[in-house]
Design brief:
heterodimer, A: about 260 residues, mainly alpha, about 85% helix, B: about 220 residues, Tetracycline Repressor, domain 2, about 80% helix
């Protein structure tokens, strides 16, 4: 077994453990709105089942996924269940368009376009485009509604999103030394953004309101996912670890919401 | 080769005649059961079409594409029952379970006709695994819809999520049983365990939280 496989297996075991623990703990939570709780539990269950599917597929040595498979549908489900829970919690009106949430949606669409460019898998990514745009739109709206982001934060995040989009597009067409430099800069920006959102989530969990923690934890999960999809091994494993941490943070935010409602 | 349409006619005609003599819930259950058998045949047609169009092998289609098609066609009559027939929670749940049972029954009959039914072990596995899988998935789909409807929260994203969850569970089962050995063993046990967990939740009323539990946002 190579060291890459060992780390990958360890990450998978850790993610299974976290998902199982979160599912059991969340099922026992009191005070959270039943629909928010149901959608959140479904999101965790779908993550768990999709990981099992991925693991089984890898163990059976079935090779690459086909142009269209259950994995594309599960991604669409994962991208819709979390924002559906947020939409329920924040009573988000999708028709209320703001510069910040439309920038979020645009960033989502650009990400899908970049994944098509990088992977060459267009069918699955096109199927997932609308759910992913919806995910980023709702996350941006929840950051605004909860008051987690001030004007300067919003401008900073929109700028970072634009820079990442441009960098990743240029990276696709570059090679040699330019590629190495841009790749490093891109990694630094994406990881800094993810870590900043994680830090803000922890801060909101300790000192802020549950709504702020919920919006920030979901956003940090999304940013970590984007970082994961745009990373290669061994940096990929660090991004994957961040994803696992953010899943745990979303649970802590939901728990805080339940506690606040019970008080 | 078997003629599925002929099998469907043979099975459904006596059931449809029985429907004429029934009223209220038993009638609805039987209608939904026949509908489940019809949509099973429809999903077979769509899967066959997808296989020809995509150029996949029969096994790849069964593992990767059929779960999505089957779960989608099972969801459609549930949505029809909710939106067009405006069924209440109890009616919707019973209809969904009967659709799942009809689907599983017809699929099992076609499978047994084509593969034979001499091995009791094989027949039991087929009944407890695949049969249970279709009922469990319709229980999951209808439960999610019922809970959301009680709180006026049925939405396209949540329905997509529920469909994705049931499709993935189904796809995982198909993937597990596609290989012999321990993989198949886990696959055959999985639907039964899922059904038992859902049954325990149903018995303890945990499947449908009461609207009185509704908390402030």
């Amino acid at each position: 077994m190579t060291s890459s496989n060992s780390i990958s297996s360890a990450m998978m075991v850790l993610e299974f453990a976290v998902l199982l623990a979160v599912f059991i703990a969340c099922a026992r939570l009191k005070g959270v709105h039943p629909v928010t709780k149901l959608l959140y539990l479904m999101w965790i269950a779908t993550l768990f089942i999709s990981n099992l599917y991925y693991l089984t597929h890898a163990l059976q040595n079935k090779g690459l996924y086909l142009p269209f498979s259950a994995m594309d549908v599960v991604s669409a489900g994962l991208y819709t269940l979390l924002p559906a829970a947020l939409q329920q919690n924040f009573s988000i009106d999708l028709k209320k368009v703001t510069p910040f949430n439309s920038a979020g949606a645009l960033f989502g669409a650009i990400n899908i376009w970049l994944w098509i460019l990088w992977s060459g898998s267009w069918l699955g990514n096109i199927i997932n485009m609308l759910p992913f745009v919806y995910l980023l739109y709702v996350c941006s709206s929840s950051l605004e509604i909860s008051g987690a982001f001030r004007k300067t934060d919003k401008i900073a995040l929109m700028t970072v999103s634009a820079v990442i989009s441009v960098l990743e597009t240029v990276l696709y067409y570059s090679e040699g030394a330019l590629y190495a430099v841009l790749d490093t800069v891109s990694y630094i920006i994406m990881f800094s953004c993810s870590l900043y959102l994680i830090f803000r989530t922890v801060d909101a969990l300790v000192r802020g309101s549950a709504d702020k923690a919920l919006a920030l934890s979901a956003s940090s999960y999304v940013m970590s996912i984007i970082t994961t999809y745009m990373s290669y091994e061994p940096i990929y494993f660090v991004a994957e670890f961040m994803v696992i941490v953010t899943i745990a943070l979303t649970y802590l935010a939901v728990r805080k919401k339940g506690k606040e409602a019970s008080e | 080769m078997i003629y599925s349409e002929n099998v469907l006619l043979c099975l459904s005609i006596p059931l449809l005649i029985t429907v004429l003599f029934l009223r209220d819930m038993p009638r609805k259950v039987l209608e939904a059961f026949v509908l489940g058998m019809i949509i099973c045949l429809m999903s077979g047609y769509i899967s066959g079409f997808a296989r020809i169009v995509s150029g996949m092998s029969a096994e790849d289609t069964a593992v990767y594409v059929s779960p999505i098609i089957e779960e989608t066609v099972k969801l459609l009559p549930i949505l029809f029952t909710m939106y067009v027939l405006e069924a209440d929670d109890r009616e919707l749940f019973i209809t969904a379970v009967a659709i799942g049972a009809g689907f599983a029954t017809f699929e099992n009959i076609c499978y047994l006709l084509s593969s034979g039914s001499m091995s009791l072990t094989f027949v039991l596995i087929r009944g407890l695994a695949v049969g249970t899988m279709h009922v469990a998935s319709t229980v999951i789909l209808s439960s999610v819809i019922i809970v959301e409807r009680r709180f006026n929260a049925v939405s396209l994203p949540s329905l997509t999520g529920a469909l994705a969850m049931s499709s993935t569970l189904h796809a995982l089962y198909n993937l597990l049983v596609s290989e012999p050995g321990i993989s198949s063993g886990i696959g055959y046990v999985m639907p039964f365990i899922t059904a038992m967990i859902l049954y325990a939740m149903f018995q303890s009323n945990a499947l449908f939280p009461d609207t009185e539990e509704k908390t402030e946002k």
